[in-house]
Amino acid sequence: MNEVDLSGITRRFGRTARRDAWWVKPLIVFLCLSSFVIYVTWAAFQGKNYAYGPYLSPLYSPELFGDSPHRWLGPKPGGWPSFLPWSPALLILWAPGLFRLTCYYYRGAYYKAFLVSPAACSVSEGRRRYTGERAFPLVLQNVHRYLMYIALIFLVILAHDVWTAMWFTDTRTGSSSFGIGVGTMVLAANVVFLAGYTFGCHSLRHWVGGIKDRLSGSPVQRQIYRCAGCFNRRHMLWAWMSLFWVAFTDIYVRLCATGVWRDWRII
Amino acid sequence: METVTFQIWRGGPARRGGLAGGGKLVDYSIPVSEGMVVLDAVHKIQAEQANDLAVRWNCKAGKCGSCSAEINGIPRLMCMTRLKDLPLDKPVIIQPMKAFPLIRDLVTDVSWNFRVKKTIKPFRPRAADAADGTWRIAQSDIDRVQEFRKCIECFLCQDVCHVLREHHLQDEFAGPRLLVYTAALEMHPLDVEDRLQDLKRAQGIGLCNITKCCTTVCPEEIRITDNAIIPMKERVADRYYDPLKRLFRALRGRKKN
């Protein structure tokens, strides 16, 4: 019998007896989320090439103020600070961004990947002080439910963008006609993925029925609650699919607008 | 038969500090056969090489929750961990649960869980539905909490939870198992007791940062985080962190805990 002395076990960062590649998952999450944040920040500050024909990038929707035909209220507001670069995305992107930032799934994911709290299950953090989500600033994660309400409004707006993306304007006559292009499908898939993600939100599930102990007397509410539960079971999958597809949709519209890609009309 | 080396933690509570005390990993090599689980290997070692090896076990069927340990660093039931699912080209490391005080070898003192459990407000049903003193419950209302009744109290979720394991906040945080227990009571369609204040303060639900490690290790596959902890966090948020709901409660004249 060989004896291995392990009396030196301490709370050193990364210390674990795990034999698997526990660091792979947090590393992938770190790379994916970092890439997304970098791309979205870059795209948001561009302030151009976010619309092409009837298509509007979801990073810029709703376009409250701007120069494209999709704008709601008018051009760039006169009181915009001169030191801040202008982009219509800066007015609205905080809402979906904070919705994801405070999402229960993403919280668990980035606590591991970015804050290493812990990096993986049963892997030492090496951190002495821990206050969890009951102290500032993480106690602010409880604002998630309000952001969920806003996300639902965004979903309606993005669905309307898909409808708009079905009406193509003839540049010669100025008349619009119904049609479906690849871009329409890309925008529609974006709404589907975002809906799957939002409908599985833990706060939404609580709001539509989780708050109650008895739903048997409310068959419609019970059905809605069960439906939210179905989406919730795949919340992580919806979260990643919608994240990638939002970025891809922006890339698609941007490349069409710059003439790199050609949008094919299906109908 | 293939020979496999097991490194088993051997040590007692000689010095304060559990594993950091006086224990060590000891190598044992034994021949293994098809179908063996880790607990079989431990029993074989106990019978043939280390008669004084302390190990807690009972049903060997994943239902009593006694043989919890850390196998290659991951909290698991020894009786439900097949050797064929482990990399046997390297020694298999078997250690006691690290979140609890070590008694000896693979046996830990999990009595803290039961002490905390006693502090949770018990089931308090509403007034009886019928004149004969009985109640009526719809199956659809009880489905949600029946998932929590599958818990076998193996305490693997408590062991893997970094709040208990790493930060030793046992005085401030009840841990996943007891949050599941509280959720089962709080979400029960007959129960009228209010445990939200306790959830926030005594049980420290805000300390959970939803890493879902408890869900990952649960041998009964209870969705601890999604179905128990987060719904309780949402109810606590309703009460303490939602200004609009607070306003509505104030307008309706409801008393806050």
Automatic annotation (TrEMBL), chain B:
GO terms for cellular component: plasma membrane. SUPFAM superfamilies: 2Fe-2S ferredoxin-like, alpha-helical ferredoxin. It comes from the Bacteria. Residues 2-98 form the 2Fe-2S ferredoxin-type domain. CDD domains: fer2 (cd00207). The keyword DNA-binding does not apply. The keyword Translocase does not apply. Pathway: Carbohydrate metabolism; tricarboxylic acid cycle; fumarate from succinate (bacterial route): step 1/1. GO terms for biological process: respiratory electron transport chain; tricarboxylic acid cycle. InterPro entries: 2Fe-2S_ferredoxin-like_sf, 2Fe-2S_ferredoxin-type, 2Fe2S_fd_BS, 4Fe4S_Fe-S-bd, Beta-grasp_dom_sf, Helical_ferredxn, SDH/FRD_Iron-Sulfur, Succ_DH/fum_Rdtase_Fe-S. Belongs to the succinate dehydrogenase/fumarate reductase iron-sulfur protein family. This is Putative succinate dehydrogenase, iron-sulfur subunit.
